[in-house]
Amino acid sequence: MKNFTSVKDVKNIKKLVKEGLALKKKPLAFKKIGKDKTLVLLFFNPSLRTRLSTQKAGMNLGMNVIVMNANQGWKFEFEDGVIMNTDKAEHIKEAAKVISQYADIIGIRTFPTLTDKERDYQDFILNKFIEHATVPMVSLESAILHPLQSLADMITIEEQKKTKKPKIVLTWAPHPKALPQAVANSFAEWTLASDYDLTITHPKGYELSKKFTKGATIEYNQQKAFEGADFIYAKNWSSFKNYGQIEVEDANWMVNSAKMKLTNNGKFMHCLPVRRNVVVAGKVLDSKASLVIEQANNRTYAAQVVLKRLLMK
Ligand code: CP
What we know:
The N and C termini lie close together (7 Å). The protein is 36% helix and 15% strand. The strands form three sheets. It has a five-stranded parallel beta sheet with strand order 9-8-7-10-11. It is built from twelve helices and eleven strands. Helix 1 crosses helix 12. The protein has 313 residues and is of the alpha/beta class. It is globular. The chain folds into two domains: 153 residues, Rossmann fold (3-Layer(aba) Sandwich), CATH 3.40.50.1370; 148 residues, Aspartate/ornithine carbamoyltransferase (Rossmann fold), CATH 3.40.50.1370. The chain binds phosphoric acid mono(formamide)ester. Phosphoric acid mono(formamide)ester binds next to helix 2.
């Protein structure tokens, strides 16, 4: 593994998940491999889980961890050949090389514009960092993917599944703001690569990029999709087709107890943060079916297994 930016960087998902679960049992077993190594985490957007779990993962491996709010200083210029006479004070060419001198591994969280589809789906900022950095890079969520979240989700499913090939349903859910497609794209990509049975349900107009959903069943009737499901993964995303737009604000798509009753005693998943009684009923979140806290716990071991692989390469 040279960098970690998507499921494509992983040769054997099952093996990685198993290694993550082993780290969960003995988080400090590899405390020496990160000694005198530095992990720099750059956040262009706010975070609770990714920030703390990746920091903890680095510390569990004995690394020194530096976290920077990259959106609070001056702005970076990412375009080549521009005259830098605007508000952007530092070019990515210098910044990525300089940060690489201080770091053995760099993690970066970016966010989509939700207006420039082409730029977002090139993962422009992440790839500019990768182009100019001289150390391994880890995506802490990019414009289009959230691989550490998905790896944590695969670890959670592996822990909880009762059959080899569980039925997993990714359901669109309401939200007052236009949100990225990253978690949904990534969850679909990792679930399908893990050879699970994936159904995606959403109102018409919320079709995700086929690049990430090939092999999934698309079902526009949410209740039909929930029938017999072992896992329900709720997430809002804005339209891919009518890029970044909110197509409908249908509160009926909220996950509630009645819908969960249609499942095969299914578990409820969400990456968090979640808006109670908008995305999902508080009653579902507070029920035994909810895995959201354990998903967040597994973020540490997902990050740790990735950092371990990069340190040992
Ligand atoms: N799920 C997730 O990435 O949470 P944060 O935005 O808090 O990091």
